[in-house]
Inverse folding.
């Protein structure tokens, strides 16, 4: 296939998503990452609509982009004035980008009922605005807003608006499914009937869950430019997700829009934008999600041990992801053997049968444990089952007290006694809650024996009541996620007592860190 150009609008359309806001500085950081990925066009924002986007373009003037052409976005001129008198078009020129994106109305419903304009004046606005930008030396991408809805409502007028953009000198005419309601077979037929004498692009929204499918269909129908956002961020249900589109084009359609080296950075880019947007990464996101190559069923795991193609449509490493095998009550011995090998544990070292281990795990999961979400505890469990576990500390006792009076919030205090190689250590600490107090006391106690505790942090804490019908006597499951500068791991605890369950998960987290994650200098006894 012919090369397809990638047009990223995360910094403009993506910021229209609920709860997503970027500072000008954050937008510049994302733009640099997009440039490193090899994105061809980066739409930075609408300089005529808000001060933040104007500030971004000022910052971007001193930035050097190696691969991408920076793009400013705006509307056609207002009715009844010349393009040179329009403040929006002036702001586009002042942003000093090599490319501008102009959007105009294609659907007669919008022209006559929403804008209260005439069809003839709308055509003039499109033609003159594009021509004005070309006269000022800009590459022009024309976005035909609501094109597919407009075509279905008034075919002749919708096509006239595209002709007006071509007559003005547009370098690209982008067909927009702005409401996200067009189906792939409709979209393909309309594109083929449009038959424009200019390169076309596609811009789709995900209101029907079809943004990626419609984009791929458009490419197959001849679109040379693909517009979308990282992680599909955008207004309402979002935009076409470039994180999904890029690997489809590269690996399934023989259309290498980025290099193989950059393809391997795709997951990292997705996570970076998620973190910058303060959005939790979606585990089930195709290609790059944590669960994208996670296998749980025993038959599946048995098959991928023989040939990964049996249950994987692509090699996860190709897009910077990795294979994961989960262990649960749905697992067979293949899951356990795979995980043991992955963790470097010899299941047969002491004559243990993996089938018996599977049965024990299923009993524990029936009791409330969930090891597919707690790799840290699962590793410790495997070592305990095979008599290979060597604890770095033993609990002798702990006590947690909570105080509350009418004038002050609750305060928590924990006293803990642990033993390390026969040496006892008693330590007390305060915290924002009972688990926080226990965590702080553990750190103080273990800090006297190990030097790898300071760079470990608890980053997530979840509590799940197993069966609410038992009321306050119900079992609870506690999941703790911890991290250091290089790794993230999860641990679990189950008990009728929330503090006991929290302790189990917390203790496993420290055991895992000190026993399996630290380098030789971190796990050394003082």
């Amino acid at each position: 296939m012919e090369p397809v150009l990638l047009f990223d609008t995360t910094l403009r359309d993506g910021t229209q998503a609920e709860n997503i806001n970027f500072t000008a500085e954050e937008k510049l950081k994302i733009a640099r990452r997009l440039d490193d990925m090899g994105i061809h066009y980066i739409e930075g924002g609408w300089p005529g609509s808000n001060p933040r986007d104007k500030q971004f373009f000022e910052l971007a003037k001193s930035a050097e982009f190696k691969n991408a052409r920076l793009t400013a976005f705006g509307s056609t001129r207002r009715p009844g004035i010349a393009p040179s008198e329009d403040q929006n078009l002036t702001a586009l020129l002042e942003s000093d980008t090599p490319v501008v994106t102009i959007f105009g109305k294609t659907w007669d419903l919008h022209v006559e009922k929403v804008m209260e304009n005439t069809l003839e004046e709308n055509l003039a606005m499109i033609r003159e605005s594009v021509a004005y930008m070309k006269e000022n030396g800009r590459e022009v991408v024309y976005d035909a807003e609501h094109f597919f809805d407009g075509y279905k409502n008034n075919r002749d007028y919708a096509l006239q608006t595209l002709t007006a953009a071509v007559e003005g000198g547009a370098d690209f005419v982008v067909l927009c499914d702005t409401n996200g309601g067009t189906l792939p077979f409709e979209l393909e037929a309309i594109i083929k009937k449009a038959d424009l004498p200019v390169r076309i692009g596609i811009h789709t929204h995900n209101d029907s869950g079809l943004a990626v499918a419609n984009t791929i269909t458009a490419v197959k129908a001849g679109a040379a430019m693909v517009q979308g956002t990282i992680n599909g961020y955008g207004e309402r249900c979002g935009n076409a997700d470039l994180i999904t589109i890029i690997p489809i084009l590269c690996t399934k359609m023989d259309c290498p829009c980025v290099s193989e080296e950059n393809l391997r950075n795709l997951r990292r880019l997705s996570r970076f934008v998620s973190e910058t947007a303060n959005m939790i990464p979606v585990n089930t996101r195709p290609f790059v999600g944590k669960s994208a190559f996670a296998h749980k069923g025993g038959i599946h795991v048995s098959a991928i041990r023989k040939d990964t193609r049996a249950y994987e449509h692509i090699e996860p490493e190709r897009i910077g992801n990795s294979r994961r095998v989960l262990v649960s009550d749905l697992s067979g011995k293949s899951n356990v053997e795979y995980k043991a090998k992955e963790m470097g544990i010899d299941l047969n070292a002491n004559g243990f049968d993996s089938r018996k281990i599977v049965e024990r795990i299923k009993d524990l999961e029936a009791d409330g444990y969930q090891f597919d979400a707690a790799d840290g505890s699962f590793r410790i469990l495997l070592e305990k089952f095979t008599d290979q576990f060597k604890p770095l500390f033993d609990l002798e006792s702990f006590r947690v007290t909570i105080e509350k009076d009418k004038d002050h919030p609750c305060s928590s205090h924990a006293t803990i006694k642990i033993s390390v190689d026969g040496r006892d250590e008693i330590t007390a600490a305060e915290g924002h809650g009972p688990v926080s107090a226990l965590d702080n006391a553990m750190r103080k106690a273990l800090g006297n024996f190990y030097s790898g505790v300071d760079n470990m942090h608890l980053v997530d804490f979840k509590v799940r009541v197993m069966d609410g019908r038992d009321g306050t006597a119900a079992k609870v499951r506690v999941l703790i996620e911890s991290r250091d500068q290089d790794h993230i791991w999860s641990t679990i605890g189950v008990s009728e007592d929330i503090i006991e369950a929290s302790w189990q998960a917390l203790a496993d987290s420290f055991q895992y860190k000190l026993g399996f994650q630290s380098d030789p200098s971190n796990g050394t006894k003082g």
Observations:
- Residues 5-258 form a domain with the TIM Barrel fold (CATH 3.20.20.70).
- The chain has three domains: 5-258, 294-385, 394-517.
- The two ends are 63 Å apart (CA to CA).
